[in-house]
Amino acid sequence: MAVALLSLIGCGVLLGLSTNIAKYAYLQGVSALPFLAGSLAGATAVLSLMLAKQVRKIHLSKPLIGYLLISAFFSVAGSNFILFSAIPYVGVSYIALTMTLPPLLTYVIALVLKVESYNVWRAGGVVFAFAGAALLVISKWSLLGVNQQWALIALLGPLLLAMGNIYRSAQWPQGFKPEQLALGMLFVAAMMLILVGFIHPKLSLSMPLNRTSIGLIVFQSFVFAGQFLLLFILQRTGGPVLLSLIGSVSALFGVPVAVFLLGEALSPVFIPAAALIVFGVMCMLFGQSIVQVEVDA
Question: Whole-prediction pTM value?
Answer without folding.
Answer: 0.82
